[in-house]
């Protein structure tokens, strides 16, 4: 009798230990996976970003590794974060929305202006063939290139330079994303968009910007629409 009770107790204890270690694995082992799940369901899918590929890469990409260590714990919150040098990593929802607006596919070559942390480039690179990205601040260009290399993103080329000039050697691009706000859409960048291509950019003053979507039709004509109000850091004017 005593032995039986002892057995039952031992089995119960063992069972409890197994359950506890499973809970530990699911929570403590990779808390960022859960944070990303919540980010996607609560901040992104709930706000009408429905492209399954965009949601998949937002779930898979370690956003916390793109932000300064001191603010890593805030990486999955519903707002932008400072990167230093006047740059910010955009709110997760805005990254997802802009990516969806580009209608990315695996055949495309994309240009990004404003590399910042490299996060938006990493998201886009998982959905297109190659991303070319230009950052004006040398320190940010270097650290983003390092982060992207260390994380194994091999289809992204980072260049330090002035985004107003675009990347003429690699143009035209099927998708162009500008992640700093110019006062007017730079003509050079529209010229570097392929026929059938899409460009998305925040356009306006420091305090008031519209997220503009440009489509270049097969005959070269342009359509333009606004996808709502946004708040980006200003694009630094052309040095020359
Ligand atoms: N896409 C970035 C966030 C960009 S913040 C990310 O995912 O983290 C805007 C960036 O644009 C800043 O890093 C800023 O330095 C850069 N920038 C501003 N003006 C620019 C210009 N004329 N050419 C290239 N980059 C510019």
Description:
With 240 residues, the protein is of the alpha/beta class. It has seven helices and nine strands; from the N terminus they run H-H-H-E-E-H-E-H-E-H-E-E-H-E-E-E. It has helices spanning 2-29, 31-44, 52-60, 92-101, 119-125, 138-150, 187-191; strands at 81-84, 87-89, 109-113, 130-135, 156-160, 173-178, 193-204, 209-216, 222-230. The chain has a seven-stranded mixed beta sheet with strand order 5-4-3-6-7-8-9. Helix 2 packs antiparallel against helix 3 (52-60) and helix 2 crosses helix 4 (92-101). The radius of gyration is 22 Å and the shape is elongated. It binds S-adenosyl-L-homocysteine. The site of S-adenosyl-L-homocysteine has 24 residues, from strand 2, helix 5 and strand 4. S-adenosyl-L-homocysteine binds next to strand 2, helix 5 and strand 4.
């Amino acid at each position: 009798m005593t032995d039986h009770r002892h057995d039952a107790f031992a089995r119960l204890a063992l069972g409890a230990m197994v359950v506890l270690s499973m809970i530990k694995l699911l929570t403590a082992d990779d808390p960022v996976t859960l944070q990303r799940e919540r980010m996607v369901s609560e901040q992104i899918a709930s706000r009408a970003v429905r492209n399954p590929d965009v949601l998949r890469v937002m779930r898979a990409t370690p956003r916390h590794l793109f932000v300064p260590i001191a603010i890593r714990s805030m990486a999955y919150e519903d707002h932008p974060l400072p990167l230093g040098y006047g740059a910010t990593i955009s709110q997760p929802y805005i990254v997802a929305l802009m990516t969806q607006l580009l209608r990315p596919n695996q055949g495309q070559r994309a240009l990004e202006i404003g590399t910042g942390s490299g996060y938006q480039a990493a998201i886009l690179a998982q959905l297109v063939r190659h991303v070319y990205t230009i950052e004006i601040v040398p320190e940010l260009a270097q650290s983003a290139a390092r982060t992207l290399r260390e994380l194994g993103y091999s289809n992204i080329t980072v260049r330090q330079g002035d985004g107003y000039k675009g990347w003429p050697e690699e143009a035209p691009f099927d998708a162009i994303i500008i992640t700093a706000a110019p006062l007017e859409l730079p003509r050079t960048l529209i010229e570097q968009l392929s026929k059938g291509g899409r460009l998305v950019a925040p356009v306006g003053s420091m305090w008031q910007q519209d997220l503009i979507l440009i489509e270049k039709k097969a005959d070269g004509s342009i359509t333009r629409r606004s996808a709502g109000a946004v708040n980006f850091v200003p694009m630094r004017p052309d040095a020359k």
